[in-house]
Amino acid sequence: MYYIIQENLFREEGHDKLISCLERFQFTYELVKVIPFIEDVVFLTDRKDVFVFGSLKLARLSKKYGWNPGALVTDNHNYEVYAKYYKSELLNYDSRIYEIQDDFEWEYEQQFIRPCLDSKVFTGKVFEQKDWETAKNNLLINGHATPETRIQVARPKKITQEVRFWIVGGNIITYSTYRRGSFLFYNGNVDPDAIEYAQKMIDIFQLARTFVIDIALTENGWKIIECGSTSCAGFYDADMQKLIFALENSFNKFITCISGC
Q: Which of 57, 67, 107, 125 has the fewest Cβ atoms within 10 Å of its own Cβ atom?
């Protein structure tokens, strides 16, 4: 496949690992700029067998350009969809769903709030009421959200560890711890019970042919934090060689079948 990668999006070390892997194994790629308020991207290739790494805007534009597989952001990348399958395995299954314009009851001094869609409209985190009102108004004024943007609101939970898994074709390909307690901690060594738990969840439901799933260790065991797009997820300490080879093995076969079956 051909890879289109957005400039200046991922953390420098993650970006360098991706580029280094593509160059080492002679996979073709190009870097592109995604400019705010411009609904086009300047690129050189005329190929359609393109995989995208970048923002959700670039993911959306990949459909416009007919790239296949593109970014694989589907209707399943929505808490309200995958909650029907994962249910109480979700860390925030107690969430109440609102539109961002709603004046909901503030049940706790602090509440965890995030978008229902994997939209990156804002980063989910714990807010106090005054901070949320400020953030909400800024999102609406700046046009980053619409009044109808759906959000989930939940009681904050105590988390001791957070791990991301990259899935291709129903299999865990690589993983990375990215937080221990309140500290960022990037490490490719992951507890076996976390891997076992993640695979059980993947066996229940898969958002797409490739996606990422984040899990957290809580006082009640492992729980799913959220699911997202492989194209738009930070890399942490993932094994990029394993990920790229898995994408090639899965999507080259898939694309060949679509065009030749």
A: 107
